[in-house]
Amino acid sequence: MYIPYLLTTLHALSIPSLHPHHSPHDLFSRSLPTTLTTSQILSIAPSSSTCANSPAANQCLDASSIAALPLTAIASYYTLSITGELAAALGTVAFESGEFKYNHNVFPGRPGQGTRNMQMPNYNLQYATSLAGMDAGFAGKLKVITTATDASGLSDQTLDALLDLIVSYPMADFGSAFWFIGTVCQGVQGVREGLRAGTLEGWSAYITGCLGTTVTDERQAYWEKACAALGGC
Predict the structure, then answer these.
(1) Which pLDDT tens digits describe the chain residue by residue (233 residues)?
(2) 160 vs 128: CA distance, rounded Å
(3) Exposed end of the chain (fewer CB within 10 Å): N or C?
(4) 177 CA to centre of own chain
(5) Using CA atoms, how far apart are residues 103 and 109, in angstroms rounded to an integer?
(6) What is the Cα gyration radius of the chain?
């Protein structure tokens, strides 16, 4: 399932403008690739070669299926323009989803938490509301689930239904990480500049200052693999 308006919008995207901190040559070497390949996905998440024997088969997506999605176009739509930003998003979703095996929180099983970005329900409501503004069909489905603007008073059943709606659209499922960087992180001073710089310090600020969690060796390893897969951050 796809969001038609989003697909139309993606095809109309223009090339991102130069970032003031990068020279034209630097931007060219670190700008987003046109597509992501299966081998690039596998180099970030080696176990994503197959969903056979996956503990949650209905949630798992393998590398070849992921590569078929227009992820770099979606990233551009949410204003990501440098490999450092894309690597941060890809590293996060690989880590959070158990190398793309999950899009619902199963440990400990928090209602409504999910997408490949493993967003908390309040962010999923914000994200779904933004998607509803793009597509009438999605908006109609969301309205059946909730018209709330605040997730804090929603039942566990409603939170799960909201998450199920988002992840039923593969592009929206993966696009959550790009949306998060392009909207939530945009409001956190210095985070996007740090990601665009492609430094460990900049990535660490994204983890602690925007995701609100702790830098770990495992998280860092996924970011480093994503940087390597993209030819550098």
Answers:
(1) 445 445 444 334 332 322 333 333 333 347 899 999 999 999 999 999 999 999 999 999 999 999 999 999 999 999 999 999 999 999 999 999 999 999 999 999 999 999 999 999 999 999 999 999 999 999 999 999 999 999 999 999 999 999 999 999 999 999 999 999 999 999 999 999 999 999 999 999 999 999 999 999 999 999 999 999 999 99
(2) 13
(3) N
(4) 2
(5) 11
(6) 17
What are the tokens at 217?
A: 């060796």
- What six digits make up the tokens of 134? 């793009």
Look at the block and give the residue holding tokens 């990501």. 80
In the numeric block, the tokens 């490949």 are attached to 116
